[in-house]
Amino acid sequence: MKKIILTLLPLIFILSSLNAEEEKSYLKTKDEISNKVRKYYEEMSKENIKFAETFFSEDVEVAINDLKVSGKKNYIDRLNTIHKKLLKDMKVEELHVHTNYFSPEALTSDGKTASDVSPDEDLIWTNAWGTITGVGRVTNKKISFRMHMDFRTSKGKVVHLLAYYDPTQMNEEIKALEASK
Fold first, then answer.
1. What is the pLDDT of residues 87-123, one digit of tens each?
2. Which pairing describes strands 67-70 and 26-28: parallel, antiparallel, or unpaired?
3. Full-model pTM
4. Is residue 136 a contact partner of residue 83, using CB atoms and an 8 Å limit?
């Protein structure tokens, strides 16, 4: 009997630790939000700015490296400039997208929990990265740069967008556009 108890005791501890309440966030790649982000890139490659108008919330906050853009209208204006004046034949190659569904107990960057930051709904961020390719409309030079973007969604719309990339090639095209005026 003692042997049975000693054998079962570690099993009981293992099972009880597996059932303990703990933070559980989830990462998905085939969910509706990840698919919608993939669709966003597909539509931007077609210069379909109308899709972006349905994708972003009215009060979206965008941070592109250190540049801040507030509101959907201002960000749509930026997209129009990029797609209609700066670059053509844009594509995203080697695209990876996944969505993080954060546990209410998950810590955010400022030490608050996800439920502190988003008390009325789940905190959801989608991460995407790939290589942007295209051709400068003014210089006719091929461009290629890696980009990482994070999309926070709420009620089916993007409310916060973070984008990180080396702006060197984009800045060269902006200078050429300004010089051509």
1. 999 999 999 999 999 999 999 888 899 999 999 999 9
2. unpaired
3. 0.85
4. no
